[in-house]
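Human: If only I could read backbone structure tokens as easily as an amino acid sequence. Underneath my words sits a plain record pairing an amino acid chain with its backbone structure tokens. Take your time, and here it is.
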Amino acid sequence: MPFMDSIYRPALARLLPVAAACAFAFQTVPAMAFDAPREAAATVPAADSDDPVLRALEPLMEGEFALQAGRLDEAADAYLRAARETGDAGLAERATRIGLLTQDDARTEASLALWGALGGAEEDMLAAEAALSLRQGHDRRARRQLEALIGMPEPGGWRQAFGVLATGGHDPGQSVDVLRYLVRRDRIPAQLEAWMAFGGLALRLDAPDLVDDIVDKVIEHFPGEPRVALLRAGQLREAGREDEAREALGAIEPRALTDPSMRQSVAHEYDRLGDLDLAEQTLAQGPQDDQTYALRASLLARDEDTEGLTALYRELGRDAASPDPQRRLLLGQIAEFLERYDEALAWYEGVPGGPQRWQARLRGANVLHELGRTPAAFDALADVQADPTAPDDARRDAFLLESVLHQEDDDPRAEMEAFARGLSMFPDEPEILYARALAWERRDDIVRAEADFRRILVIEPESVAALNALGYTLADRTDRYQEALELINRARAAQPDNAAIIDSYGWVLYRLGRHREALVELRRALALQEDAEIASHLAEVLWAMGRREEALEVFEQARVIDPDNRALRRALEGLGLPVEPAAPAAPDGDDADEGVQE
């Protein structure tokens, strides 16, 4: 349940208007009003009132202010006091969930006990209890709680257990051990979806032996199920046995590929193996629709398979006589990649209407820029920006695209002017402010970047993206680490399982010198999302801890994911390590001796 949902319960219906009135009064009452005689102020303080709802006013406001300041310990304590005063299960739940983000186990246990006493949902309670047990290192207790959670009749029980193991434990190895226990005792429900989910988690946690166990169990429970081959292929790929992974995928019966979801899953696995051609060929089997065509075009483009993309382009073009906006938009995008810019422009101009029309106009401006017709490109964007019939998001995106094109032209002044004009038309538009903040950060103008992020937070105080971006920027580019931690904590409270936020949290812990804690968080983030920047951060922490060989392995993992990642390149340069991958070794032979050995 989202935190804010729990406030709107009947027991607190009277409390919020009181809180709002108090806040309004502090803003509007003249200073001279406080000089009135004491006898005139006979109001009983809320803390001494007989009404528990009024008594909860002070801790509730404290909790809100503490949460807004990113002081999670204070917020958890205040919400626990408010829950005790009101007997509201929603506030007890909120205190518990915030407590799970802190290090105070005693207070979190108290919140959890109160939540249970007030009638918290059993499924949610068990998940929170298991997460706390994992954090405390009580694996045996966590296993019992997760078994009970998985065994609940509600269909969401195993999903909750999955979430706890994916994000609840601070040590991925601990999650592996608990999951291994559940698998070997056959506690996973007899649903293929559940087994596949836990198998995927084992792959992410880098536990090949556990994946072996899960594959064996799936074969036992679901003989002949083709999706087992997907899990097996992933296992082999993670183990570096890529040829065997391809054999496993190739063994899937063609009739299984008539299922669109299965076809996409097999194609995705080929993609992970780097076999973009096989991924595209898999998608080409069976019925085709615009989504399938778009996926195939994307794979062919990434593979730089001009011949294959040209063939697909011709195939789609044969059916383009009818004015289908989506199809013509796709044809324009393929022609654009093939650098057939005149044809792309014709397709975009031929999109007859619908929401695709505005995207086509924006893409058309980009094509004009590629053709070197720069004034015409910016004129086209100006037409969209000034078109009163255009949706606001299309007009906003026209300013954003204009800024991108100026950036490509290496014209920072014009880029910033585009942002300024966009904000004059759409005052306080968060997306434009966010893009401009990133542009300031690229220029190392952290003061202006911070100003734009803070302006977003004035407009949208709960903007998780802005909280995380500002917190990360302060942690990465300044020494204001405590302030960064408070901002990131606010984002964590809103989205505790977001890999990007966990990465920011790990990074600020590292900058605070809390290397062991940082290592745990960054491993969690990378288990949730394969990302070059997260891997780079993890490698830097390992390097700082003296674990150089492991750090180099993780740096290489980041390079495989995205060799051009800005954070990765900065980290390698900062440590004096080669930014570009090492050249492949020369082949064996008489002419290859020199330079092979050092």
Residues 1-44, 589-598 have pLDDT under 50 and may be disordered. DSSP finds 33 helices and no strands in the chain.
